[in-house]
Amino acid sequence: MRSSDVDTLCAHRNETEVAATQDWPMPYVAGMAGWLSGQDRLDDITSGGRTHLAIDVGGEHVGELALLLDDKGQQASIDCTLSSRYWSRGYAREAALAVVADLVDRLGVVRITATTDPGNIAALRLLEAIGLVHEHEARLGVVRRGERTDATCYAVTADEWRAWRDRPQGSPGEVSLVPIDSDSAWAWRAVEGHWSQRRFVASVSDSYTDALFPDVWRGGRLVPVLLGVMADDERVGFLMYADRSPSMLSPYLWRMLVDRRHQRRGIGRQALRLLARRLLAEGNTHMTTTFAEGRGGPREFYLGLGGRVTGEIVDDETEAVIDLTTLAAEPVEP
């Protein structure tokens, strides 16, 4: 960024939605951006200080990426802000991903960190989309607007980021469902979703607890069945459903989790088609499920499988019914 960016910098920093989780003074005026003059002499990211990079779209300055690189050039922290007029278009992800790649591949940074407001779901999802992993919650860990408040902290090492970048991203050659038993239960705990998705699906460990102490449903305890999802001989997902019983007239899809490294590959859809064929063979015609509502939630996923919302709310979750014949008839092959 340069001194010439002061007007656009002030414009997007003064947007209410942008400033809500930031700590700069409001209103933000040009006199507060004197630090921009120090940027005029920079031609690269500098160690031992902060560097601000402009995010340009079609030649228009619409946001910024702030980098803090330590004295040895080994650890960097990143922070991204973008004008609300350009949200939800992928610009922040594209810019942040390019910067992380440059830090790792060209500058040799070995660890990258980021901190954000726990309630800023868009920021959590952005950090996850560029390969960072939730590390911890810092209670009263930052000062914002003069008050102590909580922070969510993400990080990734260079090796971890390269592994994430090089992970399989296309449709898998083969997906299968396998039983989980005492010999494999521990290994399946490594399957985990993104931190931002914890509002919608429990961890494998929490699912084990629920299976050990199942809920009572209409006078009878749920009968859990636990299955692992394999893709090309790799553990990529976890599935748990409640089997049909005297109190459960149709199977209930209890949990569906795809590992964060294997999402957006069509694995969840393929796994549920395989489950539908299995349940049909056992004489079932449909299964029910429930899901939490919210941004980034699974509503569209289940509706895309032919799910029909019943209008019932069960434990604060929306109930849906899925026709097994329709789901099972779709091809599983990629």
Based on CA atoms alone, the radius of gyration comes out at 23 Å
CATH class call of the largest domain: Alpha Beta
> Can you list the strand order of the major beta sheet?
7-10-11-12-13-15-14
Which CATH architecture of the largest domain? 3-Layer(aba) Sandwich
First-to-last CA distance: 45 Å
Fraction of residues in H or I helices = 25-40%
CATH topology heading of the largest domain:
Aminopeptidase
List the helices and strands in order: HHEEEHEHEEHEHHEEEEEHEHEEH
Beta strands, count: 15
Structural class: alpha+beta
CATH superfamily of the largest domain: Gcn5-related N-acetyltransferase (GNAT)
The largest sheet is: 7 strands, mixed
Q: In percent, how much strand structure appears in the residues?
A: 25-35%
Please give the domain count. 2
Number of helices: 10
GO molecular function: protein N-terminal-serine acetyltransferase activity; protein-N-terminal-alanine acetyltransferase activity
InterPro entries: Acyl_CoA_acyltransferase, GNAT_dom, Ribosomal_N-acetyltransferase
Domain N-acetyltransferase: 1-159, 175-328
Organism: Flexivirga oryzae
Describe this structure in words.
- This protein is an alpha+beta fold and 334 residues long.
- It folds into 2 domains: 3-165, Gcn5-related N-acetyltransferase (GNAT) (Aminopeptidase, 3-Layer(aba) Sandwich); 175-329, Gcn5-related N-acetyltransferase (GNAT) (Aminopeptidase, 3-Layer(aba) Sandwich), CATH 3.40.630.
- It contains 10 helices and 15 strands.
- It has helices at 6-13, 16-19, 91-105, 121-129, 158-165, 185-188, 204-212, 267-281, 299-304, 324-329, and strands at residues 49-57, 60-69, 75-82, 111-116, 133-144, 147-157, 175-179, 216-217, 220-221, 224-231, 234-242, 252-258, 286-291, 308-314, 317-323.
- The chain has a 7-stranded mixed sheet with strand order 7-10-11-12-13-15-14, sandwiched between helices.
- α3 (91-105) links the parallel β3 (75-82) and β4 (111-116).
- The longest helix has 15 residues, at 91-105.
- The two termini are 45 Å apart.
